[in-house]
Amino acid sequence: MTFSSSVAVRELPLFPLSEVVLFPGSQLPLQIFEPRYRIMMNTILQSDGRFGVLMVDPTQGRIANVGCCAEVVQHQRLPDDRLKVLTLGQQRFRVLEYVREKPYYVGLVEWIEDQPTDKNLTELADEVDQLLRDVVHLSTKLTGQEIVLPDDVPELPVELSYWVAGNLHGVAQEQQILLEMQDTAARLERESEILTSTRNHLAARTALKGVFE
Fold it and tell me: Which of 94, 106, 154, 181 could make an SS bond with 99 (beta carbons 3.0 to 4.6 A apart)?
């Protein structure tokens, strides 16, 4: 999966969301009900269907400076003028400046990509993939419910790093750090640390469960 743009800088409607971090390749369903965002959605549906998603830290009310462009792939208008939309994450971007704030935010943004690295990304990706499967296996043993990975888990290092980051739950601040990284190896290494910690925790709980059964 490759995302590119011939325009390095552009204006982009922006949608701040509390503790939501979108990654390239991830789907994000939304219900649009606020009047300003209904205006925004009606506007972008008449153009290229793209807007930027930025994470809001609810503890500080701070809007992140790096986000991910979302493209509307499906939409449905409801009788009360709300909109249900399904979006797909595209390129990451950095906000250079806000062009306006009303009726909704519009920013001048630049696209960002990972920098080249001399590290063995295939080896790192294989490690993360195996850890992911270990976590799923241990979760199945612990819960007694069969948990399976979807068939579309990416194999390529960059896409895998986005997929893993997008499927972390309840750790929006950690996800934002991973989104802002421009080093694929560093992102995979951090995910390896997170998955190793999770695997070890699950292994300990599984062993403890076995003792008391």
Answer: 106
pLDDT tens-place string over residues 48-94: 999 999 999 888 889 999 999 999 999 999 988 889 999 999 999 99
How many Cβ atoms sit within 10 Å of the Cβ of residue 212? 5
Q: How far apart are CA 211 and CA 107, in angstroms?
A: 57
Q: Omega into 150 within 30° of 0, i.e. cis?
A: no
Q: How many domains does the chain have?
A: 2
Among 112, 106, 113, 89, residue whose Cα is nearest residue 11: 106
pTM of the model: 0.89
Mean of pLDDT values over 178-198: 97
Residue 2, domain member (yes or no): no
Overall residue count recorded for the chain in this entry: 213
If asked whether residues 101 and 175 sit together in one domain, one would say: no
- Do 158 and 193 contact (CB within 8 A), yes or no? no
111 is written with which tokens? Answer: 């696209």
Assess whether 100 and 153 both reside in one domain.
Answer: no
Which amino acid, residue 198?
A: T
The β-bridge partners of 13 are: 106
Instruction: List the domain range (segments joined by +) for residue 40.
Output: 9-112
Q: Count CB atoms within 10 A of the CB of residue 197.
A: 11
Q: How many Cβ atoms are within 10 Å of 40's Cβ, its own excluded?
A: 20
Q: How many CB atoms lie within 10 A of CB 93?
A: 25
State whether 165 and 145 are in the same domain: yes
